Amino acid sequence: MMLNVIKRRLAAAKRGHKLLKDKQDALIKEFLQKAKDVKELREKVEAAIFACYRSFLMARAQMVPAVLEQSLLMAGGGETGVHVKTRNLMSVVVPEYTIDKAEEQVKGYGFAMTSGSLDLALEQFQELLPDLIRLASEEKALRLMAIEIERTRRRVNALEYVMIPAFEETIRDITMRLDEMERSNLSRLMRIKEIVRSH
C-alpha cells in the first residue's frame, strides 16, 4: 500500500516539476524581454532628465537666485493624481501606475523678471512626469518578476534534487524489501515441500 502511495506521489511530483520548469522558463523569457524594454525606457527618461536640468541650469544662470526661488514658489505645481491598478503577468501581480492628465498650469510668476529657460524647464519636467511614472511601474514589475523567478527556481530545485530522489530511493527500498520477503517466502515454501516429500 505504501509503495502505491509513494508511486502516486512521485508521479505528482514529476508532473509538478515539469509544470514549474515550464513556468520558470516562460517567466525568464518574459523577464528578459521586459528588462530590454525597461532599459530603453530608462535611457529615454535619463536623456529627458538631463535636458530638463540643462534648461534649469540655463535659467539659474540667467536669473538672480532670490528671483528664481520666488518664481519657483509661485510656479503653481497643480495637482496630479496617481492611480494604481494591478494586473496579472505570468501569475505575478504587478502594479500599473497611471496619472491624471494634468490641466494646463497657470504660471504664478511674472514674465518680466524670469527667463524663457525657466518656462522651458518647467514644461519639460511636466512632460517627463508620465514617463517617470511608467518607468517606476515597469521597474517594480521587473523586481516582482525576479522575486517570482527565484521562488519558482527554489521550488524546481527542491523537487528535482530533494523530493523526487527521496521518493525514488524509498520506492527502491520498499521494492527490495518486498523482493526479499518474496524470496524468503519462496525458500520457506520450498523447504516445507522438501520436508513433506521426505515424510
UniProtKB/TrEMBL annotation:
Protein name as it appears in the record: V-type ATP synthase subunit D
Keyword annotations of the record: ATP synthesis, Hydrogen ion transport, Ion transport, Transport
Q: Which gene encodes it?
A: atpD
Query: What's this protein's family per the entry?
Result: Belongs to the V-ATPase D subunit family.
InterPro entries under this entry? V_ATPase_D
Q: Name one GO biological process term.
A: proton motive force-driven plasma membrane ATP synthesis
Outline what the protein does: Produces ATP from ADP in the presence of a proton gradient across the membrane.
GO molecular function annotation: ATP binding; proton-transporting ATP synthase activity, rotational mechanism; proton-transporting ATPase activity, rotational mechanism
Q: Name one Pfam family in it.
A: ATP-synt_D
UniProt entry tagged with the keyword DNA-binding: no
Keyword field contains Amino-acid biosynthesis: no
